[in-house]
Amino acid sequence: MQTEVIKVTPENLATAAEQAGALLRDGEVVGIPTETVYGLAANAFDETAVSKIFKAKGRPQDNPLIVHIAKFEELEALVTEVPEAAKQLAEAFWPGPLTMILPKSDKIPDAVCAGLQTVAIRCPSHPVAHAVIEKAGVPLAAPSANLSGSPSPTNAKYVYDDMNGKIPLILDGGQSAVGVESTVVTLALDRPRVLRPGGVTVEQLRAVLHEVDVDEAVVKPLKKGAVAASPGMKYKHYAPKAEITILKGSFEQFKAYVEAKNAEEHFVLCFEGEEKDFPHAVTYGRCGDGLSEANRLFDALRELDEQGAKTVFARCPSENEVGLAVYNRLLRAAAFRVVEL
Question: Which parts of the chain are beta strand (E)?
Fold first, then answer.
């Protein structure tokens, strides 16, 4: 299969979205930009098309997908009910990087939801994603457009690196603004619960709903035998080829630890301005600035592979606000290898 890449501009947006929409209506899979990361989209109502997503990614069948819609009014047909909490969250954060889990309607195939009785749904704010959903005329199931387990792509180049020859089309909508996947909150329990942190913070959710829990799997491995109710809950995920270890402590402690391990033999993943202290370093944002860290993390993980890193010591981000999303992704990239300094 030849994979075409179209650089989308305001002038060709309509025609590019129509080309993608036609492929999606025909049961194909298309790489599309969103404000979080790039997605691998297929018609959410077409089980055969959805199966092509799993095949292209090498994704386990027990990992549910997120369904993307163009406007709130499309939600009602996909779920058995729309609670008041969903309306409040949509008014505050849609379109945007928030996914809500609700009991699914019969319209959603089991393959989309990994056999669960719930469906994860979001309304992206990226103009290209929005246009493609409208032109396709159907909701789109779309996980991140990478090989399963590897860092999510935030630009079309990385989608092409992973998907060349596997899908017919990638729309290049520029660099993703957020840089990590959407926040996932389930409304299918007694109390709202965050299953995956993202660009919409726990603090922002609580400002709307007041009582919002955070699942322990956000910062701990999913318990053995537990079902992944959301994408991104698997033990190892978002990982480069290199072995990453997170070091928790001050910069001085971090530097001393790396030097004791022979800095010439290892790479470090550090914050801007710290790279000058190490022979092999890749940076991911500014210390304490979760937004900049999120924006850079996945690209930094891919750059480590491009530079041939084998072992990496990583500076630990804050666990506050968007920093929690960064910490969550880095924990899984490191397979929960953490050293307290």
Answer: 4-7, 30-32, 39-43, 66-68, 98-103, 118-122, 140-141, 169-172, 183-186, 193-196, 213-214, 243-248, 267-270, 281-283, 311-315, 338-340
**Structure letter (DSSP) for residue 73:** G
For residue 233, what pLDDT is reported? 63
d(CA 331, CA 247): 11
Instruction: Please tell me the distance from the alpha carbon of residue 14 to that of residue 18, in angstroms, as a whole number.
Output: 6
Of 32, 27, 36, 29, the C-alpha closest to 16 is 32
Q: Which two tokens stand for residue 275?
A: 């790279």
Backbone angles phi, psi at 270, to 5 degrees: -130, -175
Residue 262 pLDDT? 87
Q: Please, how many CA atoms are within 13 Å of residue 156, restricted to the half-sphere of its CB?
A: 18
Alpha-carbon span 154 to 150, nearest angstrom: 12
| Torsion-angle region of 312 (φ positive above 0: left; ψ -120 to 50: alpha; else: beta) | beta
The span from the CA of 288 to the CA of 268, in Å, is 17
- Collapse the DSSP code of 306 into the 3-class scheme (helix H, G, I; strand E, B; otherwise coil) and give the result: helix
Residues 88-134: tens digit of each pLDDT? 999 999 999 999 999 999 999 999 998 899 999 999 999 999 999 99
Burial of residue 226, with CB atoms counted within 10 A of its CB: 0-12 exposed, 13-18 middle, 19 or more buried? exposed
**Cβ-proximal residues to 142 (8 Å cutoff; 6+ apart), any chain:** 32, 34, 39, 40, 41, 42, 53, 65, 66, 67, 68
Confidence tier at 232 by pLDDT (50, 70, 90) = low
The predicted model scores a pTM of 0.94
Report pLDDT digits (tens) over 128-159.
Answer: 999 999 999 999 999 999 998 889 999 999 99
Note whether 245 and 222 are within 8 A (CB): no
Tokens standing for residue 257: 């630890």
Cα dist from 329 to 27, 52, 221, 315, whole Å: 31, 25, 12, 13
Which residue carries 């989309």 as its tokens?
112
Q: How far apart are CA 282 and CA 270, in angstroms?
A: 6
pLDDT exceeds 80 at position 80: yes
